Amino acid sequence: MAEFKKADSMLEWFDQRLGVVNFAKVMMTEYWIPKNINFLWAMGVLLTVLFTFLVVSGIFLLMYYKPDANMAFDSVNYTIMQEVAYGWLFRHIHAVGASVVFLIIYIHMFTGIYYGSYKKGREMIWISGMLLFMLFSAEGFSGYMLPWGQMSYWAAYVITEIFGGIPFIGDDLVVWIRGNFYVADATLTRFFMLHVLLIPLAIIGAIVFHFYALRFPHVNNEAGEFFDFDVEAKKYLAGNKKHSKVIPFWPVFLSKDVFVLGVFLIFFFYLVFFHYGFAMDPINFDKANGLKTPAHIYPEWYFLWSYEVLRGWFFEIAGISGKDLGLMAFGFANIIFLVMPWLDRSPVVKPANQRPYFKYWFWLMIADLMVLTEFGKLPPTGPNAWVGFGASLTFLVLFIALPFITKAEAAKVKGKK
Amino acid sequence: MKEFKILAVLVALVGITYYGIEPYAHSVMHPAVAPADFTFQDVKNVDTSLAGNVENGKVLVEANCIACHAIEKAGHPAMMPNADAAASYGVVPPDLSQAGRIYDKNYLANFIFDPVTAMHVQQKYNPESGKAFPMPSYNWMSPQDIMDVVAYLQSVAPKVADNVEGHKSTFEAACGRCHNMQYAGIEATTPASVIKEHMGANPPDLSQYIKSRGEHYLHSFINDPQVLLKGTSMPRVGLTEKAQEEVIAYMEEVGDSKKAERESLGVWVILYSVIFAILAYLWKRKIWSEVH
After folding, report:
1. For chain A, how many structural domains are there in total?
2. Which of A49, A75, B165, B241 could form a disulfide with A66 if both were Cys (CB 3.0 to 4.6 A apart)?
């Protein structure tokens, strides 16, 4: 055992035992972030804060929520919303937080795509991020079922039904997922378990991994510039702070993030207290009823684009039914972002607007996702169905074309040099 | 400056998407309908400009109405318990104590003349269906007599306070014979099995209707259910605008009981966030002045 001398201060006492001084250096004061960044680089911290809000509000909700098909609806809408002191506040934070966390995830994700922060050494950051997106999606979907309202029930019905399209095992798989032949109490209880235990554990693990994956390739910057972090860090530590290209995570990087967070919180709490309808669908204030289908069934806004990719295929092509085509397109849409680093064949790391071909691809992709999101909510009738089909097809074509576009771009850029 | 440009692009993209999936999509799914008509102009069998005679009205009511209807406020108790009345008529006949207050004068007069037409439930009660509404038409009565009845009912109706208790009494008189309101402990006076038989389905519990339907929808729906839900067996009940507002107010007091707390706390939390953001900005400026 190491020899311990008597500590002169509390800090020293902890430092002897836990190495806190070094730990703080590694994690905070000498964790280097590029200086050339804008507020979009604060989304990670926003997401961490939002996830904390969700965990804390979730813990409070868990004290009164009843995962039982006969009691769930009233435990949420009466006990939590009306009886428990500030129960409504926790529910509003949880519901609005769950919706807004996806807005920030999308901003975070498209910032990464715009600045090319997924390639040349940053592949694992991207993959762990997409893994988090998938886990958050599962968390959002399982949580949406818990209030056991009409939309909870029918969204669960429609989404679990999707698995029925998988060849051979589809029908059995649906029953296995639901725990019954239809969405029922067993479904509610198992999704409750997923929502409060298994998926959150996986999310926490994935967050740690995401932060870890950032450590070696370092955070990207606004110009996509590569430089030697050690050299820049030395400059900074030598006092040449103004000329160094890096800043420490604490306090410099975080001071900016905390300000962005402050502005965000004004917006967030405005939504929580005064404008929460978008996150708490009116239809979900009707108790689940398996015998009464709502006139319009739609998922929460953050799933609309992939839902529309699924729904856009409504007619048979070459002997394959529209349903199966939609399912294939849906499967494609849900994994394609994961392989983004390998679809982009250009070695250039630069903001999209400084890349001759990619900039068109990027903005077309954003526009297409917006169209998909919009038409994913509208009833799929008449011309809407065709717009949905067109946007869904465009989505596939965009991603199939990406390797060719970026390869051509790489050749063009090389030719110039 | 550059950061503001990025923010502007972000706000525009989010704003367009939000507009599309919220206000626009909802306007497509729920198209605007004709505005609520609280004068019930479509029914004009009775000349409602005639001045009613309360004394004569009292005589007519005692001869024609109290065999089925209670009027507690005028000393006419119900003839039988609710369960028995419901079994006899299909639904508990309303106590008329509040009728003169909560129902529009024009509606009430025309209702007495011909209930089915006034209620907009011709699709259910017609010669082909063979079903008859429990209350007969008083179309043999002269308009003057009908207006006398209306005048009498208006004279006995008690005033209610503009508070939760008052709103509750309006709600119970207007909705409470068919609808439960579990979150307020209100159970329909007509037993569930009987009302199901009478209406074709169990009328919904209204505890959360302020949230699931919203004030805007209820405003139009209560005024005339057929406008938004064609073919529904819920009758047009003929509430005055004031009575309807009281009903909706009560639905909000029960279904969204923390509204006042939410809105007052919201202001403080947002104010706190603004101060937080200002202090954070000052701190950021100080820190970044060393590195820029």
Report:
1. 2
2. A75
Range of the domain at A106: 31-297
Provide the shortest C-alpha distance from residue A201 to chain B (in Å). 30
| ipTM for this model | 0.94
Residue A246, classed as helix, strand or coil, is strand
Q: Does B25 touch chain A if contact means CB atoms closer than 8 Å?
A: yes
Would you say A73 and A148 are in contact if contact means Cβ atoms under 8 Å apart?
yes
- Mutate: best of B282, B287, B292, partner A, most A CBs <10 A: B287
Q: How far is CA A105 from CA A43, A109, A112, A224, in A?
A: 8, 6, 11, 21
* Alpha-carbon distance B273 to nearest alpha carbon in chain A (angstroms): 5
Of A297, A323, A347, the one marking the end of a domain is: A297
Q: Does B13 touch chain A (CB under 8 A)?
A: yes
- Interface contact A106, partner B, CB < 8 A: no
| Nearest Cβ partner for B29 among A35, A269, A379 | A379
How many Cβ contacts (< 8 angstroms) between chains A and B?
A: 130
- The answer to whether A377 faces chain B, any CB pair under 8 Å, is yes
Given A273, A297, A321, which residue is the final one in a domain?
A: A297
B261 chain-A contacts, CB cut-off 8 A: 88
* Nearest alpha carbon to residue B179 among B158, B164, B201: B201
Based on the domain organization, do A381 and A254 belong to the same domain? no
Longest alpha-carbon distance in chain A:
81
With tokens 């919904």, the residue in question is B204
Is A154 part of any domain? yes
Q: Does A373 touch chain B (CB under 8 A)?
A: yes
Reported residue count of chain A is 417
Residue pair B70/B84 in contact (Cβ under 8 Å)? The answer is no
* Same domain for A335 and A273: no
Task: Report the gap between the CA of B205 and the closest CA in chain A (Å).
Answer: 9
Give A276's contacts in chain B (Cβ within 8 Å).
Answer: none
Indicate whether A156 and A285 sit together in one domain. Answer: yes
**Position A16 in a domain:** no
Distance CA A287, CA A75 (A): 12
Taking the CA of residue A5 as centre, how many other CA atoms within 13 Å lie in the half-sphere pointing to its CB?
Answer: 3
Integer Cα distance of B116 and B136 in angstroms: 9
Cβ–Cβ of A269/B212 closer than 8 Å?
A: no
Q: With respect to residue A324, please indicate whether it lies within any of the assigned structural domains.
A: yes
- Per residue of chain A (417 residues), give pLDDT as tens: 577 889 999 999 999 999 999 999 999 999 999 999 999 999 999 999 999 999 999 999 999 999 999 999 999 999 999 999 999 999 999 999 999 999 999 999 999 999 999 999 999 999 999 999 999 999 999 999 999 999 999 999 999 999 998 999 999 999 999 999 999 999 999 999 999 999 999 999 999 999 999 999 999 999 999 999 999 999 999 999 999 999 999 999 999 999 999 999 999 999 999 999 999 999 999 999 999 999 899 999 999 999 999 999 999 999 999 999 999 999 999 999 999 999 999 999 999 999 999 999 999 999 999 999 999 999 999 999 999 999 999 999 999 999 999 999 999 988 876
Element (H, E) at B174: helix B164-175
What residue segments make up the domains of chain B, in order of their start?
A: 1-31, 32-255
Asked if residue A173 and residue A100 are part of one domain, the reply reads yes
Which residue is closest to A367 within chain B, CA to CA?
B13
A11 lies in some domain: no
Residues A381 and A263 in one domain: no
Window 176-235 of B: residues touching A by CB (8 A cutoff) are: 182-183, 204, 207-209, 211-214
Tokens 């994935």 identify what position?
A206
Residues of B in contact with A76 (CB under 8 A): none
Residues A221 and A331 in one domain: no
Residues A284 and A403 in one domain: no
* Shortest distance, CA A169 to any CA of chain B (angstroms): 35
Residue A230 sits in a domain whose CATH number is 1.20.810.10
A293 and A314 fall within a common domain: no
A314 touches chain B (CB under 8 A): no
